[in-house]
Each structure stands twice: as structure tokens, then as C-alpha cells.
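INFO  loader      accepted 1 record
INFO  loader      residues=677
INFO  predictor   begin
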Amino acid sequence: MITRRRFLQGSTLTTLGLALPFNPFLQRAHAIAYLSNVGPLSDPALQPKFIDLAPNALDPGFLFKDLNDNGGPAQQPNFSLRARETVQETGLINPKNGKRLKTKVWGYGADTVSWPGQTFQVKSVSAGGAPETVVRWENELNGGQHLLPVDTSLHWCYSLHGAGSANGVDYRQFNIKKNGVPIITHLHGGKSDFQFDGNPEFFFSPDGNVKGPQWDFVPGGFTNTFRYDNNVRAGNLWYHDHALGITRLNVYAGLAGFYFVRDEYDTGQANNLLGLPAFPYELAYAIQDRMFTEKGDLFYPAFPGDPFYDDFITGEGAILPPDLFPGGGPTALAEFFGDHMVVNGKIWPKTNVEPRHYRLRLLNGCDSRFVAIRFRVAASPGATDLNGASAPLPFYVIGSDQGLASSASMTDTLVIEPGGRYDVIVDFSGLEDARIIMENIGGDAPFGGDLGEDLAPEDLFPDRQTDRIMAFDVVLPFNNAIADSFDPVTFDGWAADLGFGPPPVNPGATIRRVALFEGLDEFGRLQPLLGIVDQDSTATAFTWFQPTTEVPALSSTEVWEIYNFTGDAHPIHLHLVNFNILGRNEISFTEGAPVPVLQHNGTLGQVAGISGVTEGGAVGLGPTDGYVENAPKDMVTALPGQVTRISATFEKPGRYVWHCHILSHEDHEMMRVMQVS
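INFO  predictor   done
INFO  writer      dumping C-alpha cells
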């Protein structure tokens, strides 16, 4: 397998200082900064580990109540929800006195809101559910400021104008202080009509007074009542904000939650045909990373003196004009890695379990961090680190983003890309009174394929606390009234009979060659981009607003070949579809002189010219490497120096998008329109 370092060592390099050979995390030892422009930050080593219980997003008390389940006349919408500010405890303390701190966040909810938002659980059509679920989304983020620093130099909601504004409106007349924070909720993994998909240019302000330009091209115009297609199989979807240029900030503030579809096989009930654990033995956890101030506030770097600023601004030689960046900011940074691990809004929580099989529905909701999880028995029941822990325990992966797998795969390590969801079975039997720690052997830097002992010291925070995520304490007595019936052989039999797994491959599918780049924007900041590989084996990068190049035909099946010309892995997400990951091959290419890239404001950035693209040998990745991909996916890890192939069918017409799910990347042009026509 090609690692980041082997790829960089073997590439044709230039002295242009462009992105392909350069990664600030690998140029100098990276040290976590406990000071920032707002003062001292929370020291993760001084925060408690495995004290608070992890909220289970599938607890019946955490589920949104369907308004049609009250026994009265049918109602539309099924759910009426709002996004607004709240305050909650995350488990943070003041280390000086032990007092618990409160954190201001944004959340989704009905009567009350929370981070993460409560969970949708709906039935598919095949299980007797309604054809669609109807949700009204109210934007109540009208407080006059964002929780986090907003870089208004980016291509974002309130910067659209001229050719970049499809309806001709100059959105520069609007601002957050006057008009509130724009949002648009994306049902990630949904097979939604385009106007309900959460396209970033469908944003709307509080009360809908400011509407994104694409609403002008929807029959009937703007609505905040969205309809989601239930004619799908069971799957682990999630919902999150997707507003243009501020997705990373809105999600970081708390705007995300789970959305589960149940069908006649994966029912969520104890007597399901497949023998899968059900509540209280089915647990759903969103894994995220954050930084906090010493007072407990969310912290996001954007100014001189902040963590990562020197890496991505000063160290890159970026020049930020003081009229646009007074005091040196706020500026977007190329990636973000938090030093506190958070699960369902709690830092390093725990859960108490019985000695039996549990089903874990795991989401990587981080901005940039790839996690690679393992489960290890701690040296003692009260241990808070991995010193003296056991060898990794084997577990089964039975599904991923949009459904169950074609077979259960045993592994002891699982790579979860940002935006990815995995369905795993962990057996705690025989581990009575033990503590099992969910370990993370992924790094604290951009992911290039290395894990664990292959990581360099500069890939890790000093005194690293991000190597652990949460704990499972096997302290509950076994409940004999509920059978522990999971069996991988039985699951595999049903999977074969019922056709679980990724969608079939059409041998006559159209081949589409797309590409991933890293360049520099007009200020010299690292700018990741998407583009195409041309017939002459050159490649062309584009920004968001340039003419659409991905135009699949309605009902067609295409094989996308994703060429990664960067030094990092990118988690690629296509809206609307689920896909089959077909495989990977090594590639070689020549990096040439820089070529200009038009920016949203008419200025020019640059990216290295790419030519001589050729394909090499196959790259075999499987469960022993931490990759389980035999399920319907809407996320794929495109590793550096490789071409990754996926096959998808495009079943609805309209304007969708595809992008890198490193949120800091998609907010800075690593996203393109995908027009199904």
C-alpha cells in the first residue's frame, strides 16, 4: 500500500511550493498550542476520561416524535424542527476546582434542541412506511453573530454576486449581523429530490428572508418543508448543515444528527429475522473532535497565535491583506484537528454494557480526522489510558453508510473516513468487570494511509489524548429474558438470500474520470480542488462556479475513476446515490508549471499542471488493512497516488453536488455541481 511518505518520496517534485509535495504537518514538529487569540485553551490531559455516560442516539427518549404517531388524523409534516442556540454540559470541568463547565452550542430539535440533534427513525416503504417523510426546518439562528469566526473572503452564502449568483442577486448586501446565519440541512445518504437535497446554494436565513439563488429555479419557489424518499433499504443516514462556505462552522457548532431507515429485515426490534442486537443493545455514536477554551466555549482557530495558523498561513507564505483580514484574520485554515474527542456531545464518555453482543452504529462526524478504531481491554477497570491494554479484540463489520453488507467481515481495526458510517458487532461476553477502550490509531494530521506505529512523531499531538475515544464497562448483569442471538454465519446466509451489499455493477457503464488537486488561492492559502482527467492524460482543476463537467444521464450507471494527485487521502461523497467500491490502482504522473485557477471573486489562484497520467498495479485493501467496503457506500476514501473506482446509478434528475467531506476542504472549493439530466 502506498503511504503518504512513500508517495511523496517517489513523486516528481518541483520547486513551485505548490500543494502536492507540501504538508505543513510534515515540515515541522507539530505541537498542540494551549494559547490562542482568546487566551488559554482547555488542556485535554486535565479533562476527565470515562466519567459521563455516552448518550445513545437510538434510545427511545432521544428519538424525534413523529407527529403522525399520536393516534390522530394524519399530519404533514411528520416532524417540525428548528435550529437554534442552546447551552449544554459536555463533561468539561475547570481543572482548578473541578466544577463542571457549560458550553454554548447550536442544535436541532423540536421543543428543545441539542448537540447532536435528536434522531430520526423512519420505516421504509417495503416495511409498510409512508412513501415519504416530511420535515419542516425552521432557522432560528438570528442572534446577530456566529458562534465561530467567519471568513468572509471565501466563496460563501453572502458573497455571491455577478456570474457567481445564478439569480443575479448581489448577496454581498446581506450579513450575519443584519440577516442572521444562513443554513440548509442535507440528509446525507438520502435519495432526495434535488430541491430537498441540501444543495449549498439552497440556503435560507432566519424566517426565510434571504434565500439562496437556486430556489428561483424550483417550481413553486422556496419552501422549508422538505420531503425525503422512503423507498429505500434500511440504512444509517445522518443530517447536517450544508450552507455554502460555512458548513465546517455550522456543523462544528453542533448542527448534525442521525437519521435511521428501518425495513422489514433490519427492523430495530429484538425479534428481527437477522438476529441483530436491538435496543438496548443497539447503540449509535457520533464521533467528533473539538477544541475548547479554558472556560468551556467552543474554539475554532482563525487568527494569528491560534493552533495551526502558522502551519497553514505563515508557513505557506500566504499574504492576507489587512483590509480583508484585520489583525490577520479571521481566515479559513486547510484542515482542523481537535485535541478533545467527543461522542454524542460528551468528551471521552463511557457506557455500561452486559457481557453479550452489541451493535454499534458509528459515524465519523469530524471535520478532517480519519479515525481508525480498535477495541482493547484496559489494564484495570478504572484505567483511563491504553498502557498495559490487551491486544485488539476482533469484531464484525456488518454494514456501512446506506445498508447491510454482503457478508460479515471480521477485523480488529476499522478506518472510518469523515462522513462515513459503519455498522459493527462487538462481543463483550467473557469480559465481565472489564473496561474495554475504543482506541484510535489514526493520527492528528492529514491522513495519507499510515496508522499506528507507521505514523511519524510529527503526525501526533504531544501528550496525545486522541488515541482513545470512549470506554465500555462490562458491569451490567446478563439479561436472560432477551436472547443474544447474533451469529455471523446466519447473517451471511440471509445476506446472500436477500441480496444485501453494494449495488450491482453494469458492465456497459460509462466511464467518467475525475480528479483531486491541491493548489493555492489568490492569497497563497492551500486550496483543494476537484476536476477532470482529459483524454490526452492531462488533468484540469476547477472551482465551484465554473461550468459543470459531471452530467450523468438520468437512470444511467457510471463508473467514476477518482484520480488523487494530492499528498493526502480525501473522503469523497456523491449526493443522491449509493455506490459500489470497485477497487484501486496506483498512478504516476508529472507535476509541471503552475496554471491559473479562476476564483469566485475574479482573481486567480494556481495549481500545478498535471500531465502524463498513467495507471499502475492494483492496490488490494481489505479488512486486514482496516477497510471494509462490501456494503452500499456514499463515502469512499481516495488515497494519495491512486485512482479509486466506484459504480453508481443516478435515479433522479436535477442539480446535486459531489465533494470532499473534509469540511474545511468543501468550504474552500473542493466541491462541484453534479447535474443529472
